[in-house]
Amino acid sequence: MTGSDSAPGGAPSERGAAVGRRIGIGLMNSLWRPRVLGAWRVPATGPVILAGNHAHNVDGPMLMGTAPRPVHFLIKKEAFIGPLDPFLRGIGQLKVDRSAADRSAVTDALAVLEAGGVLGIFPEGTRGQGDFAALRGGLAYFALRSGAPVVPVAVLGSADRAGRLIRALPPLRSRIDVVFGDPFTVGDGSGRRTRTALDEATVRLQERLAGHLTDARRLTGLCRPEAGR
């Protein structure tokens, strides 16, 4: 399996992403105790965008290992270093340069959706509070351009406490909740990508994602972002 392992038509490899999912399942379930809620809400077929909050570096692998379908994530180019470069490419992940308009990453992401795959995005753009308080425009662009439904995902518990053995990771065997929300679409179906349409879509996305996060915290008992800190 190599970085050039792609599906017909140039889409990143679905087979590679499936391998990545199996790796994620094994690692996440051996290191922590993920509790997955609402995975049935993810459409079983067709293009889907998973939009997750991002409070800890483990959130991506956790979502990869708990999603019901293989996911192609947009990942910052800084992660593609040394042996991780061919590995991440081989499991169908997408390198993106966040400092500029990365046309290659846009093309790859749209190819995933055009092939009926699942695109994973952390719309806050970087690790932070994980509260969807500020979104970059990429999620709105992909949602409008592709017409694919967006499924909000809340990963809770990953950043509550530092581990005793490895401070950079959550405590081993601690519970991490992954809550999938109802799919929804943005835009009017015309595919318009004007600045006004993108701004309106971003506002709607922020409202829906933040609402899902609030519901997920209530459902899991983590009603406050600071819970457990």
Q: What would you call the shape? A: globular
End-to-end separation = 41 Å
DSSP strand count: 7
Question: Roughly what fraction of the amino acids lie in strands?
Answer: 15-25%
Helical fraction:
25-40%
Strand order of the largest sheet: 1-7-6-2-5-3-4
| Alpha-beta classification | alpha/beta
Short description:
It contains 6 helices and 7 strands; from the N terminus they run αββαβαβαβαββα. With 229 residues, the chain is an alpha/beta fold. α1 (14-31) packs across α2 (59-66) and α5 (138-146) packs across α6 (195-220).
Which structural traits does this protein have?
7 strands; 229 residues; alpha/beta; 7-stranded mixed sheet; disordered C terminus
Write up what this structure looks like:
The protein is of the alpha/beta class and 229 residues long. 35% of the residues lie in helices and 16% in strands. It has helices at residues 14-31, 59-66, 84-90, 103-114, 138-146, 195-220; strands spanning 33-37, 48-52, 71-76, 94-96, 118-121, 150-156, 175-180. It has a seven-stranded mixed β-sheet with strand order 1-7-6-2-5-3-4, with helices on both faces. Strand 3, helix 3 (84-90) and strand 4 form a beta-alpha-beta unit. The chain starts with 13 loop residues before the first helix and ends in a 9-residue tail after the last helix. Mean pLDDT is 86; it is low at 225-229.
SSE layout and pairing:
Blueprint lengths: L13 H18 L1 E5 L10 E5 L6 H8 L4 E6 L7 H7 L3 E3 L6 H12 L3 E4 L16 H9 L3 E7 L18 E6 L14 H26 L9
Parallel strand pairs: 1-7, 2-5, 2-6, 3-4, 3-5
Antiparallel strand pairs: 6-7
